[in-house]
Amino acid sequence: MPIYILGIESSCDDTSASVICDGKVLSNLIANQEIHKSFGGVVPELASRAHQQNIIPVVKQALTVANIDKNQLNAIAYTRGPGLMGSLLIGSSFSKSLSIGLNIPLIEVNHMQAHLLAHFIEDCGEKDPEFPFIGVTISGGHTQIVMVKNYFNMEIIGETLDDAIGETFDKCGKIIGLPYPAGPHIDKYSKLGDAKKYIFSKPKVDGLNFSFSGLKTGFLRFVKNEEIKDLFFIKKELNNLCASLQNTIVEILFEKILEAIEKTGINRVVFGGGVSCNSGIIKKFKENEIKKKYKSYFPKFEYTTDNAAMIAIVGYLKYKNKDFSTLDKSAKARYTF
After folding, report:
1. DSSP notation for 60-116
2. pLDDT (tens digit, 9 = 90+) per residue, 60-72?
3. What is the C-alpha separation between 177 and 195, in angstroms, rounded?
């Protein structure tokens, strides 16, 4: 008998629902919240209100696109955390209610684990990575290096001590007048610029941890000083600024991952999260595979950003393992492995 899993993702500002059947995505819908752009970042209260409006129609449409009835579902998988508490509560409450109504199991999912396990979706792209591997979760809110021994045995071995990599892109982008989210814009303009035009300092952090706050502050000071000399500096040098900034961030990430490979002896590197679709990161890691003797894995674009298909695939894996949740489990804004 086929196993149908409904995944629900509501950790931040996107409301998403997906139906997976035996590892294959039948539907994966996302309702975006455009309202946050005018504020230059996600407003938690507005996000939770939008989730309330979106969750029922998104779930209904996901079932329609998958061409199944809700009574065919075997389980409901939902994001328990980490994320914005108000947003998580909407998704978890709805999932629990639907689980009770349909009398089917409820499965909690760690959002960050799901980014890495998205690679096991049937149409994710490259061949499934073999265990163990080094997981790299890079997004607006997280930057982590993870030792992944199997589907459910993961250990964080390095993480940012301050700003996340996506947050750094966005904050630096704001400094030079780019709209939120700035990451995709920086990526676009960087292709037209000279990555070696400007040199920005790389924070020195022990071990496999990261720090991006110093880079952000240094970037701000540099731009302000140059604007004193030339009021139109940003406009003239936008492409070069973006290229140089992105190159610095990519180099920081690359150096840490090479260190992780050396320390662990594992040469499979699996990326997940919204920033994993950055063209500079993909190019850097793909170009150096043979020289540095590792294999890198990047998910298809639709599985990089927050989406319910990655929640559903974890739900499917847990369902086969009979790893079910209970109604008394509450949403957690901070949810570690």
Report:
1. HHHHHHHT--GGG--EEEEEEESS-HHHHHHHHHHHHHHHHHHT--EEEEEHHHHHH
2. 999 999 999 999 9
3. 19
Into how many domains does the chain fold? 2
Q: Which domain holds residue 60?
A: 4-118+304-320
Extended strands (E) in 261-329: 268-272, 295-297
CATH number, residue 75: 3.30.420.40
Structure tokens at 227: 């604007």
Residue with tokens 């704001």, as numbered in its chain: 174
Sequence-distant (6+) residues with CB within 8 A of 205 are 161, 211
- Angle between helical axes of 183-190 and 279-287 (0-180°, round to 10): 60
pLDDT of residue 51: 80
**Global pTM value:** 0.93
Q: Which two tokens stand for residue 194?
A: 């000279």
Answer left, alpha or beta for residue 207, where phi above 0 means left and psi between -120 and 50 means alpha: left
